[in-house]
């Protein structure tokens, strides 16, 4: 058994979950009073805050699209988000810009932008604590915040990652597992219709392994959907009860 | 009237995006819904409550921006002064347009606009000014227009603005209220609420020059405190997502008298005020 395997086993022991188990999810919609929609999500030790503003008047005339809304995504990483290094990252960090554009591309076909001609929808995401899986948590947080803002979309978008190490498929990698050179496949899908909106992998994976890894990630997405949907239902029911006049 | 062919089991049901509302194709697609690719079932696109009017199904999200309806009273803030028009922020998907020809010019209702008026538009409304207006209509490209062609509408002075979710303000016969505590409340359907000093002037004897004045009248200390108290009460109601009407504000005001004005910003005071209001509402309901 090589060192990395031993390490991985140790890590999963530290984490206390099995290879096909998701990290613990906690989520809460509508945490900010000023934003039109907002959400806070924890997936294991990764924590993310999302704020959605809009649809509102376009701030820059150059960005105006005459037949649909313009979506604008910004991601920032809090300086205290990583325990190893404390440093301030600019918003123009190449890695963050790349994730932001992936999030934007994920949501563009899902949000019914044609209903909001000449408007703008802003999605601001902030990673408060980092432990792997930035893109997944960003997509999940943005979904919840968009639903809270009452913006029409085809359905939920849920994202999850899966990897493969020595014939074992692993679900929802944390930072240590990502660092251990595991090939990681990130999947964002529409859980009801099963359509894919994002598929991303940065390293090489044997083609025989692709299908089991993708199926595992898809299962993870569906599990995340269950959690988000329960939260949203409870929240809407609560608001409806409170706002009924008598 | 529409005859129910089967029991409607979807009304006032909570739905989330992607959920099938009904597979019955006789219904019409309203806001917050879409048809699937085979056009065989209605699917919700927002999280909210299903509403049905005859054959039309809509889903109403509870936490969203304002969507205008003709005749609504709205309160807005001028964001831009452009050629013959103002842009007004009304908490909607786009800034609304207020045309120079859609306001009451000083010097009588019958006066037409002149070129001199175009040059001095900032004398009527400048950037940042608040105004009450009526929603006039929306156009194909999604833009909307307002008008203030009534002495009830116009520039807002002597008071304070408070913003609540638009779903909490219900459409009523009138949106201009004078509370028994001596302040005026204007409930904009877009969720902007204006609380101001009571103006006793009759609309007919209003000085035409004064309607666009930028100067506040002197407001004494006790009135200021009352305005602040009413604002804090409305804030407490909106934090607890309760409907806002003149009676509910009056109940909240009564309940709040136990606390000094600034303590109403504390969570426990808000909790107390809203539970008192709920209690009172249930008592009132049991009487009728």
TrEMBL record, chain A:
Which Pfam families does the entry link to? RNase_PH (PF01138), RNase_PH_C (PF03725)
Q: Which family does it belong to?
A: Belongs to the RNase PH family.
Q: Which Gene3D superfamilies match?
A: GHMP Kinase, N-terminal domain (3.30.230.70)
Q: Tell me the domain of life.
A: Eukaryota
- Protein name (record): Ribosomal RNA-processing protein 41
- Species name for this entry? Gigaspora rosea
Which CDD domains does its entry note? RNase_PH_RRP41
GO CC annotation, single: ribosome
Q: Where in the cell is it found?
A: Cytoplasm; Nucleus, Nucleolus
UniProtKB/TrEMBL annotation, chain B:
- What's the protein name? Uncharacterized protein
**What UniProt keywords are attached to this protein's entry?**
Exosome, Nucleus, RNA-binding, rRNA processing
* Membrane-spanning parts: none
Family membership noted in the UniProt record: Belongs to the RRP4 family.
* Places the protein is found: Nucleus
Describe the location of the RRP4 S1 domain by residue ranges: 65-136
Domain called Exosome complex component N-terminal: residue spans: 14-53
Gene Ontology BP terms: CUT catabolic process; exonucleolytic trimming to generate mature 3'-end of 5.8S rRNA from tricistronic rRNA transcript (SSU-rRNA, 5.8S rRNA, LSU-rRNA); nuclear mRNA surveillance; nuclear polyadenylation-dependent rRNA catabolic process; poly(A)-dependent snoRNA 3'-end processing; TRAMP-dependent tRNA surveillance pathway; U4 snRNA 3'-end processing
């Amino acid at each position: 058994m090589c060192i990395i395997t031993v390490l991985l086993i140790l890590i999963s022991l530290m984490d206390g979950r099995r290879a096909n188990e998701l990290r613990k999810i906690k989520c809460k919609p509508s945490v900010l009073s000023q934003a039109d929609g907002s959400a806070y999500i924890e997936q294991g030790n990764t924590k993310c805050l999302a704020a959605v503003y809009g649809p509102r008047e376009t701030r820059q005339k150059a960005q105006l699209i005459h037949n649909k809304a313009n979506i604008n995504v910004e991601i920032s990483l809090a300086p205290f988000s990583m325990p190893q290094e404390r440093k301030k990252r600019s918003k123009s960090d190449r890695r963050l810009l790349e994730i932001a554009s992936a999030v934007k591309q994920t949501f563009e076909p899902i949000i019914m932008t044609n209903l909001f001609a000449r408007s703008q929808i802003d999605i601001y995401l902030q990673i408060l604590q980092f432990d792997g899986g930035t893109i997944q948590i960003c997509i999940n947080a943005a979904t919840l915040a968009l639903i809270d803002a009452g913006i029409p979309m085809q359905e939920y978008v849920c994202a999850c990652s899966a990897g493969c190490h020595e014939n074992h498929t692993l679900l929802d990698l944390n930072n240590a597992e990502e660092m251990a050179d595991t090939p990681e496949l990130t999947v964002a899908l529409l859980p009801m219709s099963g359509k894919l909106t994002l598929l991303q992998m940065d390293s090489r994976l044997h083609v025989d392994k692709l299908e089991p890894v993708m199926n595992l990630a898809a299962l993870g997405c569906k599990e995340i959907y269950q959690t988000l949907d329960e939260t949203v239902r409870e929240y809407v029911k609560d608001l409806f009860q409170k706002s009924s006049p008598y | 009237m529409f005859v129910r062919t089967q029991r409607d089991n979807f009304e006032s049901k909570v739905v989330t995006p992607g959920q099938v509302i009904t597979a019955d194709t006789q219904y019409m697609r309203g806001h917050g819904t879409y048809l699937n690719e085979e056009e065989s079932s209605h699917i919700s696109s927002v999280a909210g409550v299903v509403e049905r009017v005859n054959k039309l199904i809509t889903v109403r999200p509870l936490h969203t921006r304002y969507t205008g309806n003709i005749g609504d009273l709205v309160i807005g803030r001028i964001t831009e002064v452009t050629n013959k028009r103002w842009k007004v922020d009304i908490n909607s998907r786009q800034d609304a347009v207020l045309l120079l020809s859609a306001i009451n010019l000083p010097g009588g209702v019958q006066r037409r606009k002149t070129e001199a008026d175009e040059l001095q538009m900032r004398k009527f409304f400048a950037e940042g000014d608040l105004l009450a207006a009526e929603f006039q209509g929306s156009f194909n490209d999604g833009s909307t227009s307002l008008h203030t062609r009534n002495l009830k509408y116009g520039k807002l002075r002597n008071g304070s603005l408070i913003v609540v979710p638009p779903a909490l303000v219900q459409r009523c016969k009138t949106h201009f209220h004078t509370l028994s505590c001596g302040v005026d409340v204007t409930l904009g359907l877009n969720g902007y609420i204006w609380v101001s000093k009571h103006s006793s002037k009759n609309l007919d004897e209003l000085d035409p020059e004064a309607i666009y004045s930028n100067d506040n009248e002197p407001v004494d200390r006790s009135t200021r405190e009352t305005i602040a108290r009413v604002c804090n009460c409305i804030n407490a109601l909106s934090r607890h997502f309760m409907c806002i009407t003149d009676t509910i504000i009056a109940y909240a005001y009564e309940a709040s008298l136990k606390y000094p004005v600034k303590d109403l910003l504390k969570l426990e005071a808000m909790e107390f005020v809203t539970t008192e209001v709920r209690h009172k509402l249930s008592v009132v309901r049991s009487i009728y």
